[in-house]
């Protein structure tokens, strides 16, 4: 285990908190007008699935659990199970979709991921930071509309909704951040 700053927790990190192993599901940096900034973290217990919301300040330290990371490749989805293959031993491992959470929508056939194990049992799946997805539905581009701050909703090939700049149209491929589910740029 290693100590990290409270504001260094990221989605997918596993920490020891209140006597159990918890995975950070969502994070939100908050800087109130009065007082110091903090990180609002939604935690999910890896053993029983209960959820907990905690605030961590930069001055606090949190125990991050050291996990063994192994490279895997996503093979297929079967109901509520996701099947991965260890790229070195070719052994397959099935993981509950709940363990990956909302980020499971970003999984693509053949995608390389890291799976973290704690005492030989799989705990978390680490996705690439960015994925390329195609826009399947969005409003048409209006000439003369500036890209300043007006974004429009779009539906991607995986069914997710993201906000994209007005110049993006149906059929275009875009790069999306897997942690925040936000549009980053057009794909090359």
Helix fraction by DSSP (H/I, runs of at least 4): under 10%
Run of helices and strands: EEEEEEEEEHEEEEEEE
Strand order, sheet with most strands: 1-6-2-3-4-5
Q: What structural category characterises the helix and strand content?
A: mainly beta
Characterize the quaternary organization of these chains.
single chain
Mean of all residue-level pLDDT scores: 85
What is the overall shape?
flat
- According to DSSP, the number of beta strands is 16
How would you portray this structure in words?
By secondary structure, this protein is mostly beta strands. The protein has one helix at residues 97-100, and strands at 2-5, 14-17, 20-30, 38-45, 51-57, 61-64, 68-78, 81-86, 92-96, 112-118, 121-126, 130-138, 152-156, 161-164, 173-177, 183-186. The strands form three sheets. The chain has a six-stranded antiparallel sheet with strand order 1-6-2-3-4-5, with no helix packed on it. Strands 9-8-7-10-11 form a five-stranded antiparallel sheet. The chain has a five-stranded antiparallel sheet with strand order 14-13-12-15-16, with no helix packed on it. The longest helix is centred in the middle third of the chain and has 4 residues, at 97-100. The mean pLDDT is 85.
């Amino acid at each position: 285990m290693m100590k990290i700053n409270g504001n260094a927790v990221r989605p997918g990190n596993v920490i020891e908190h209140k006597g159990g192993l918890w995975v950070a599901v969502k994070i939100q940096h908050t800087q109130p007008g009065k007082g110091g900034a903090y990180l609002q973290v939604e935690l999910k217990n890896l053993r029983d699935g209960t959820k907990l919301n905690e605030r961590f300040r930069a001055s606090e330290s949190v125990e991050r659990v050291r996990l063994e990371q192994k490279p895997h490749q996503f093979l297929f989805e079967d109901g509520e199970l996701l099947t991965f293959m260890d790229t070195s031993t070719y052994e397959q491992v099935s993981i509950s979709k709940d363990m990956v959470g909302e980020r499971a929508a970003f999984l693509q056939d053949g995608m390389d991921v890291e799976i973290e194990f704690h005492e030989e049992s799989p705990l978390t799946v680490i996705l690439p930071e960015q994925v390329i997805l195609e826009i399947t539905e969005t409003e048409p581009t209006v000439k003369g509309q500036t890209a300043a701050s007006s974004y429009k909703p779009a539906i991607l090939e995986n069914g997710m909704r993201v906000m994209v700049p007005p110049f993006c149209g149906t059929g275009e491929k875009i790069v999306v951040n897997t942690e925040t589910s936000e549009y980053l740029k057009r794909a090359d």
